[in-house]
Each structure stands twice: as C-alpha cells, then as structure tokens.
Amino acid sequence: MSQRSLRRRITIWMVALLAGYLALAYFAVPEFWTFRDRGFRTQRFEMVTHTPQGILGDPINVGLVGTRKEVAHAFAVAGWDTADAVTLKTAIEIGESVLFDHPYPDAPVSRLLFDGRAQDLAFEKPVGGSADRRHHVRFWQTDAAGDDGRPLWLGSASFDRGVGLSRDTGAVTHHIGSDIDAERDFLMRDLATAGTLVSTSDISGIGATTTGRNGGGDPYFTDGEAIVGILKQ
C-alpha cells in the first residue's frame, strides 16, 4: 500500500470518528436526556391523595428531585421539622399542645395514601405557640426519576388553620386553608431562600378547581399545577 493511500485511509477514519463523535455528543446523548426529561414531566400520576377510608384527600401540588437524605437536609436547612409518627403517645402530646397552647414543633400528621401507600416523609413549620396552626407537607417517593437519575418525590402541601371535627367522619382533625396554591408557593420559596434548590418547573396537577374538598371536608381551590424543585446534590 502506498503512503498516499495510507494517508487517505487514515483521513477517512478520522473524518468518520469525528462524525461519530459529533453525532453522539450533539444529537444522540442530548436526545437521550431529552427523552428522560420528557418521560419525567409527561408521566401521568393520579395527582390526589386518599384517606385510609378511601375518601379523596389533599391534592398533589409539589414535588422534589433528590435522595431521601437530600430532601430531609433541605427541610432542616429551611427550618422545617420532621413530623413524628402517629402513636398513642404523640396523639396525646398533640392534643395537649392544642388544648394548653404549648409548642410541639414535630407533631404528627395524619396518614394519607397516594398510589395506595402512606406518606414516606412529612415535614412541618409551626405558626404560633401550639400545633393547631402549621405549614405542613407529606411526600411519597415515586418510581420516576429526574434528569440525573435521582428519585422524584411528589407531595401534598397545605396549611393547617385550626383543629375541629371532620365534616365526613366527625373525627378530630386539622382544617386546612383553602388556598393551597399559596402554601405550595410558600414551601418552594422557603426552600429557595434556604439555598437548597437548583431550579423549579411545573407539571400538570389535578387541574384547576374551585370546588375541591379534602378528606376532612375542607374546601380548597387551585390552579391545578404542581411545582417540582430540583434539589442541590
């Protein structure tokens, strides 16, 4: 083989390798991530919770992408407390907190089911001197993932404005504020102010409604969107 022919073959291989690199780096790989991103944001969920009795509960209005440890860390930095598990002892303690107006910053939250499961995590931020008024959110880990492979958590955020009786069962429960979008925005603003978010985006929730009611019979209204925050690693 002549030297000229050899140089021509080397040139052809270099051009082929360069073309392959360009196709991989600028078309195939970006399309792969776009596909992952598309799957995360267009995957359909039933964006509402249920009580253990099967009554429609609070809608899903927030989400986070991150590990369990990153989610817990983000709320700790933002000044939120991890809610205690519901036990006889914690039930008595939250009752004493409300009756005698003394703090219980990690008071339990009731069980709600999403995709047939009770919440995996719950956080709260008290307002005032007892557990009757508080910001709170429940989170469920889903099978979906963000662009970087970390799990997507979907959550339901609402504001407990006081304690009363459920309109559906008569049981003692917290009543939520009707503007759940305000609570959604408050939560995301708190996390952003704490410097724990990289970015946020919207996904479709239950759809806009002014006539929704949760498991305690409390009315709520929403624009129907859920905000998903990407946590810093």
SSE order and pairing:
Elements: H1 3-42, E1 48-50, E2 56-59, E3 62-65, H2 68-77, E4 81-82, H3 88-100, E5 113-114, E6 117-118, E7 121-126, E8 134-145, E9 151-165, E10 172-176, H4 180-193, E11 197-204, E12 209-213, E13 219-222, E14 225-231
Parallel strand pairs: 3-14
Antiparallel strand pairs: 1-2, 3-9, 4-7, 5-6, 7-8, 8-9, 9-10, 11-14, 12-13
Count structural domains. 2
Mean pLDDT metric: 80
Largest sheet: 8 strands, mixed
Low-confidence stretches: 33-38
Number of discrete helical segments: 4
Estimated structural class: alpha+beta
As a percent range, the share of helical residues equals 25-40%
What does this structure look like?
- This protein is an alpha+beta fold and 233 residues long.
- It has two domains: 1-42; 45-231, no CATH class.
- Helices cover 33% and strands 34% of the residues.
- The strands form four sheets. Strands 3, 4, 7, 8, 9, 10, 11 and 14 form an eight-stranded mixed beta sheet that branches. It has a two-stranded antiparallel sheet with strand order 1-2.
- Strand 12 (209-213) and strand 13 form a beta hairpin.
- The relative contact order is 0.17.
- The model is unreliable at 33-38 (pLDDT under 50).
